[in-house]
């Protein structure tokens, strides 16, 4: 079992990743930290609490983090996630609030208590993770790894150069990618290979478990938004990054130093550089294997 702190900006695909993290027996979900990104911090935190409640796992601690990027203004993505961040879904309010400890303090404490064991799966802008590394540099050696959903070596999704999570806080990405902590980058080069069509999750419709019903609701909401953009597929970026340390055989990796642009039209671009810390970059992904994974994990009747 891998001990994972999920750092997210919940978000529709973040919401699916939360369900995956709960349902996957190879993942020990230690806690969830929230960051501003797809929508503001209040919504990303509320969505996280409500998703956990919807699947009966409100016992998992939620820790609120940074409300704006290190240097830039907050750039959100309501176009793709709706005004509240979870499309047109109206979830029942969780009676549970987030914990009274800042996300970075929770991360630092957990890492110190579990030296060499914690993987941070960061599936939103990297503001929380960068703040952790800036505030507590002494704990870097004790972090097992940081998996980043973000970046691309083959063009972006916010601009032609930049992927959303890196674009949203490029200075934070610079801190993380040069931190000396092992970084795995799961960018669009991998995630865009797994395009889900409407019927790809049909097998879940007859399951009728909390995990399957919630996933189907999120998936349907994603499709309503995608339809309005004239697209007939959805991509589960954050689930793919979440499983990079447990389903390694689905990925093809290369090791490269990565340079991040922070300004101008190339802001948020991630490109291979001559020197610097090497990042493990996913350059290939087995999309059929991923669909089988989703079937195994979410089709489980225990949920
Ligand atoms: C990333 O951007 C967000 O909108 C998604 O949740 C995902 O983390 C994809 O570029
Ligand atoms: Ca996200």
What would your notes on this structure say?
There is one protein chain. The chain is of the alpha/beta class and 303 residues long. The protein has a single domain, classed as Ribonucleoside hydrolase-like (Inosine-uridine Nucleoside N-ribohydrolase, Chain A, Alpha-Beta Complex), CATH 3.90.245.10. 36% of the residues lie in helices and 19% in strands. The chain is built from twelve helices and eleven strands. The strands form two sheets. Strands 3-2-1-4-5-6-11-9-10 form a nine-stranded mixed sheet, with helices on both faces. The chain is globular and about 50 Å long. The two termini are 18 Å apart. The structure holds beta-D-ribofuranose and calcium ion (CA). Calcium ion binds next to loops.
Mean pLDDT score: 95
Gap from first CA to last CA: 18 Å
Share of residues in strands:
15-25%
Structural class: alpha/beta
Number of domains: 1
What's the alpha carbon Rg, rounded to whole Å? 17 Å
Shape: globular
Number of strands: 11
Give the helix tally: 12
Poorly predicted sequence stretches spanning 5 or more consecutive residues = none
Give the CATH H-level superfamily.
Answer: Ribonucleoside hydrolase-like
């Amino acid at each position: 079992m891998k001990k994972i702190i999920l750092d997210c900006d919940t978000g529709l695909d973040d919401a699916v990743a939360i369900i995956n993290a709960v349902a996957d027996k190879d993942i020990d979900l230690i806690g969830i930290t929230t960051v501003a990104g797809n929508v503001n911090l209040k919504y990303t935190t509320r969505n996280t609490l409500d998703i956990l409640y919807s699947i009966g796992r409100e016992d998992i601690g939620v820790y609120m983090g940074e409300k704006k990027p290190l240097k830039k203004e907050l750039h959100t993505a309501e176009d793709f996630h709706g005004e509240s961040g979870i499309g047109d879904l109206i979830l029942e309010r969780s009676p549970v609030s987030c914990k009274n400890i800042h996300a970075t303090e929770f991360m630092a404490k957990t890492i110190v208590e579990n030296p060499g064991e914690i993987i941070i799966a960061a599936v939103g802008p990297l503001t929380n993770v960068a703040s952790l590394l800036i505030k507590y540099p002494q704990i870097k050696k004790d972090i097992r790894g940081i998996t980043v959903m973000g970046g691309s070596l083959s063009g972006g999704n916010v601009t032609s150069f930049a992927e959303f999570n890196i674009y949203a806080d490029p200075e934070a990405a610079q801190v993380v990618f040069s931190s000396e902590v092992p970084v795995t980058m799961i960018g669009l080069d991998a995630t865009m290979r797994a395009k889900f069509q409407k019927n790809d999750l049909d097998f879940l419709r007859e399951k009728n478990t909390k995990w399957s019903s919630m996933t189907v609701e999120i998936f349907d909401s994603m499709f309503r938004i995608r339809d309005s953009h004239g697209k007939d597929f959805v991509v589960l970026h954050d689930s793919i990054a979440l499983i990079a340390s447990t389903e390694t055989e689905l990925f093809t990796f290369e090791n490269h130093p990565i340079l991040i642009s922070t300004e101008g039209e190339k802001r948020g671009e991630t490109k291979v550089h001559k020197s610097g810390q090497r990042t493990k970059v996913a350059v290939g992904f087995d999309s059929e294997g991923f669909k089988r994974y989703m079937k195994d994990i979410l089709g489980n009747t225990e949920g």
